[in-house]
User: Fold this.
Amino acid sequence: AQKITQTQPGMFVQEKEAVTLDCTYDTSDPSYGLFWYKQPSSGEMIFLIYQGSYDQQNATEGRYSLNFQKARKSANLVISASQLGDSAMYFCAMREILSGSARQLTFGSGTQLTVLP
Amino acid sequence: KAGVTQTPRYLIKTRGQQVTLSCSPISGHRSVSWYQQTPGQGLQFLFEYFSETQRNKGNFPGRFSGRQFSNSRSEMNVSTLELGDSALYLCASQPTGRWETQYFGPGTRLLVL
Assistant:
């Protein structure tokens, strides 16, 4: 079964508007972390934001915020005030923690975001 | 602090050859993970090394191997290359005990002809 699901292969947003990228996950472990990465055409994976499963508040990093709904197992990324430089592929990922040891990152299939001028 | 570096950045090989990719983690990071990214399979975990020991391994054939040196630099090797090994190979490092942070290098693009 897919552990990370990103249902939007492509998204368009107008410059300066906000956009939400969807991510749902599947795990039976109580302890895990959720990540969002940005991958421009150059290929490098750029870390954006992290949310721990026990964190009470939604994570925020500048224009990025993570809408964490634990009961629904969703971890959507919200980008406010989109910029042309935000055009890239965005990946949601999860890392499960077992017996105090972190496992590898499991990635979704990604969402290609295009910001329109 | 310098980021994760990977060499070479681009590589062209032919079927049957072998290849070695190198990754230097961020200074002080002892954990290095490798991922393969292809259009068809997406991002898949290859293996993780910590203090010169393989700590975790993904579901890849034995042709894929790796190692880590005492200075935390890591290499991965692919023997008997197949066309399907064409991919972007990404290396990531993390500080000890800080599993909520994993920083990636720019990747090595391998093309197998």
The first strand of chain B starts at residue 5 and ends at 7.
